[in-house]
Amino acid sequence: ASSSSAKLMDSYRLAAKLLFLIAWPITVGTIILAPDLIRFFAGDAFLPNSANALRVLIWFLPISYVNGITQYVLIAVNRQRTITIAFAAAVLFNLGANLLFVPIYGYMAAAVVTVATEAVLFVPLSIAVHRYVGEFNWLGFAVRPTIAAAVMGAVEIAMLRFDVVPALFAGAVAYLTTLILTGTIGRREADI
User: What is the pTM of this model?
Assistant: First the structure.
């Protein structure tokens, strides 16, 4: 951070990309397998409500991974105060939204508010990165991994009739193949 903002941005892009690439299959797999996961860990008594909540809550993961690495980058450029302000805004949003929506919509509102809070946190953090580190094209960054995750999900859903394990395996192959075919994973990522 002190010697080369270009190298810092390059490292940030790579770290965010790798974390995003890890988060997507976990997110999509959890959405598809939520009932099976709840059944395995808690039993049928918690279905379908817990599975529905899990399907919403897991959307927290990709945003959280990106927010996590973003915080470290902002610490590297001595912007801890910005992080504190961003978290204060997120806490206020979370508290207000929970007070407003949970009494009306219950646990599903709490799940949605949790994900929305992470999105609220993302906004000031990404603005701070743009201001203090450099420009980051988030839309361009997310498109190809999202396509790969959608392909993975479609393959897993189609393969579930054979069982969970073949579905997961086929989904993983589809995800990696799509990442390679779209150029999302190149030589540098493969080496890492």
Answer: 0.87
